[in-house]
């Protein structure tokens, strides 16, 4: 088997609660990179998002707003937002963990 076939790995996306992140960080402390992908409200509105009371102000939508993320990736699709650099950082980290 190749090195990447012998390793347990997984990517968990769209965690909604701090308890989810705390669980993964406590169970796999050296194997977790907590990444937030965000965009400005202006850009989100251009993409069709509209804030809705009772939806966007509940814990599953805003409970992680102040979480201490390892990496924040800004996806405003604008030159200079750092998207490519942050994405390379994340891919590099994952690649290193798969090899290590």
Give structural notes.
- This protein has four helices and two strands; from the N terminus they run H-E-H-H-E-H.
- The protein is mainly alpha-helical.
- A two-stranded parallel sheet has the order 1-2.
- It starts with 17 loop residues before the first helix and ends with a helix.
- The model has no long low-confidence stretch (mean pLDDT 86).
Strands, total number: 2
Q: How much helix is in the residues?
A: 25-40%
> Could you tell me how far the N terminus lies from the C terminus, measured between alpha carbons in angstroms?
16 Å
Look at the helices and sheets and give the structural class.
mainly alpha
Report low-confidence residues grouped into runs of 5 or more: none
Q: What is the molecular shape? A: flat
Strand/helix succession? HEHHEH
Roughly what fraction of the amino acids lie in strands? 5-15%
Largest sheet: 2 strands, parallel
Reading side by side through the largest sheet, how are the strands ordered?
A: 1-2
Radius of gyration: 16 Å
Provide mean pLDDT, rounded: 86
- Quickly count the helices: 4
Describe, in short, the structure shown.
The protein has 100 residues and is mostly helical. It is 37% helix and 8% strand.
How is this fold's topology laid out?
Elements: H1 18-27, E1 35-38, H2 41-46, H3 59-62, E2 71-74, H4 83-99
Parallel strand pairs: 1-2
Features:
two-stranded parallel ribbon; 100 residues; 4 helices; 2 strands; mainly alpha
């Amino acid at each position: 088997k190749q090195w990447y076939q012998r390793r347990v790995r997984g990517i968990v996306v769209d965690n909604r609660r701090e308890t989810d992140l705390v669980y993964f960080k406590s169970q796999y402390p050296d194997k977790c990179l907590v990444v937030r992908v965000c965009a400005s409200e202006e850009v989100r509105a251009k993409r069709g998002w509209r804030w809705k009371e009772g939806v966007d102000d509940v814990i599953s939508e805003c409970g992680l707003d102040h979480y201490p993320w390892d990496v924040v990736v800004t996806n405003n699709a604008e030159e200079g937002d750092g998207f490519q650099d942050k994405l390379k950082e994340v891919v590099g980290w994952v690649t290193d963990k798969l090899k290590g």
